[in-house]
């Protein structure tokens, strides 16, 4: 019984990935171009999200700054989810809603990219980060699900929206992680040329 339930999770996740391959390949390619344009122009990538999406933000920054599958110089990326002193000071002195926006205001430069991750598209601190990014002239790559929530309407025409066509947070997160790996692969491919990973 339990094994069947577990197998169903695998099948559901795999089904969604098949569906999403068609729907998301274009916006993911657009996001890769936005990242490349920023990095080659001396820009950097800021990444934020809550809960599992905070883990995704850190996972992505580690693969940019360290490496993905191939050796290359580190790429500039900062997860805004990691410094407990910054996070607690901003939450305590201002509001939890400001924990990412204040960091975007402090660290973001025109031409940088903000990757904003929210499965619902409705996390107030992620929305505030997007508004701060626009004020600082950053391009936003939004990873969402469930239609994109409030984030969908907060984006500018020049931003990229990668919206997973599903309602369940866990399934959406699984596609977000695949999307972030696709972005690492695409950026490495564009920077380093053709070569299959070992
Ligand atoms: O990982 C999970 C659920 O799978 C949770 O930690 C989840 O990320 C948290 O509930 C987040 O606060 C949800 O925020 P969001 O994706 O709606 O922006
Ligand atoms: Zn989770």
From TrEMBL:
Any Pfam family matching the protein: SIS_2
InterPro entries given in the database record: GmhA/DiaA (IPR035461), Phosphoheptose_Isoase (IPR004515), SIS_dom (IPR001347), SIS_dom_sf (IPR046348), SIS_GmhA/DiaA_subfam (IPR050099)
Residue ranges occupied by any SIS domain in the UniProt entry: 35-197
GO molecular function annotations of the record: carbohydrate derivative binding; D-sedoheptulose 7-phosphate isomerase activity; zinc ion binding
Gene3D superfamilies, A to Z: Glucose-6-phosphate isomerase like protein, domain 1
The protein's enzyme class: isomerase
GO biological process annotation, one example: D-glycero-D-manno-heptose 7-phosphate biosynthetic process
PROSITE patterns given in the database record: SIS
Keyword Coiled coil listed: no
Positions with a binding annotation for Zn(2+): 59, 63, 173, 181
Binding site for substrate: 50-52, 63, 92-93, 118-120, 123, 173
Catalysed reactions, semicolon-separated: 2 D-sedoheptulose 7-phosphate = D-glycero-alpha-D-manno-heptose 7-phosphate + D-glycero-beta-D-manno-heptose 7-phosphate
Role: Catalyzes the isomerization of sedoheptulose 7-phosphate in D-glycero-D-manno-heptose 7-phosphate.
Record family assignment: Belongs to the SIS family. GmhA subfamily.
Assembly notes: Homotetramer.
Designated name of the protein: Phosphoheptose isomerase
């Amino acid at each position: 019984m339990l094994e069947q339930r577990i197998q169903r999770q695998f099948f559901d996740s795999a089904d969604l990935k098949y569906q999403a391959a068609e729907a998301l390949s274009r916006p993911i390619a657009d996001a890769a171009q936005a990242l490349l344009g920023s990095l080659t122009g001396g820009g950097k990538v800021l990444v934020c999200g809550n809960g599992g999406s905070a883990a995704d933000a850190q996972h992505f920054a580690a693969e940019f700054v360290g490496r993905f599958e191939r050796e290359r110089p580190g790429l500039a990326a900062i997860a805004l989810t990691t410094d407990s002193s910054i996070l607690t000071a901003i939450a305590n002195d201002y509001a939890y809603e400001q924990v990412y926006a204040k960091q975007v205001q402090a660290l973001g430069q025109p031409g940088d990219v903000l990757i904003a991750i929210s499965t619902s598209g409705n996390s107030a601190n992620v929305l505030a980060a997007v508004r701060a990014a626009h004020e600082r002239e950053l391009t936003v790559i939004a990873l969402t699900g469930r239609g994109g929530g409030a984030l969908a309407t907060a984006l500018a025409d020049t931003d990229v929206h990668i919206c997973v066509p599903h309602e369940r947070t866990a399934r959406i997160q699984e596609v977000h992680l695949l999307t972030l790996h696709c972005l690492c692969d695409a950026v490495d491919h564009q920077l380093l040329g053709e070569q299959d990973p070992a």
